[in-house]
TrEMBL record:
GO terms for biological process: proteolysis involved in protein catabolic process. It comes from Coptis chinensis. Belongs to the peptidase M48 family. Its cofactor is Zn(2+). The chain crosses the membrane at residues 60-80. Residues 158-215 form the Peptidase M48 domain. This is Peptidase M48 domain-containing protein. The keyword Protease applies. One of its GO terms (cellular component) is membrane. It comes from the Eukaryota. Keywords: Hydrolase, Membrane, Metal-binding, Metalloprotease, Protease, Transmembrane, Transmembrane helix, Zinc.
Length: 225
């Protein structure tokens, strides 16, 4: 039984040691509690400042989102038009007057680019091209007058067009348009096509101008990039 007594003695000694440690624990066991409350006050102030900063940031994001939504909605409301004849709806981001001003600037640039290569207005090919364009525009105006919803269908901007066609003295078979009613065509197309074929060739460019394709949002982005 001696081993049993020794074991009990060891357990009793360990129990007494633990009790003594708990009794004097305040002096020998370190704690994580701060000795003063200043650290807690400083920590609370930092948390409040972070919360206020986050709240202001969140409010700014909300205001910016709402403002952007209002601007986009306004642009979409005023920028959606019907394309004449096809009634396709498209989004334009500039007025017909602005489009015409841009077209006038581009016209001057192209005149400088083709300086010395433009046929005189009294040249037979120039007069032929102008006559075909005149017939196309007259037919277009007749259709506009026959349309009862001309203003609602996008026809109202026709009055601001100054239709004109210039012939570039080159054998290329090509034509292109500029906003505002100006069309360039190469002499090669006039020599290769009949009047009926030229009417289709020039009428294609007139259709681009009438539909205001250059004022459409994707076109503006691609031209500016």
């Amino acid at each position: 039984m001696s081993w049993y007594m020794r074991a009990m003695l060891g357990i009793t000694s360990f129990h007494n040691l633990t009790s003594t440690t708990q009794l004097y624990g305040k002096t020998i066991i370190p704690t994580c509690k701060p000795t003063t409350s200043s650290f807690q006050r400083y920590y609370n102030v930092e948390r409040n400042q972070d919360y206020i900063k986050f709240k202001k940031t969140k409010r700014w994001v909300i205001y910016a989102t709402l403002g952007s939504g209002i601007v986009v909605s306004t642009l979409c409301y005023h920028g959606i038009e019907n394309v004449p004849f096809t009634n396709r709806r498209h989004f334009v981001i500039c007025s017909p007057m602005t489009e015409k001003l841009v077209g006038d600037l581009e016209l001057e640039d192209h005149k400088l680019k083709y300086k010395g290569k433009l046929l005189d207005e009294k040249h037979p090919q120039s007069m032929r091209a102008k006559l075909i364009l005149k017939n196309i525009i007259q037919g277009l105006e007749r259709e506009v007058k026959r349309n009862p919803n001309s203003n609602a269908s996008g026809f109202i901007h026709y009055d601001e067009f100054n239709w004109n066609i210039l012939v570039v003295d080159t054998l290329w078979i090509q034509a292109f348009y500029i906003a505002g009613g100006n069309i360039f065509i190469c002499r090669g197309a006039l020599e290769a096509f009949t009047d009926g074929e030229l009417a289709m060739f020039i009428g294609h460019e007139v259709g681009h101008v009438v539909a205001r394709h250059l004022a459409e949002f994707p076109k503006i982005v691609s031209r500016s990039s």
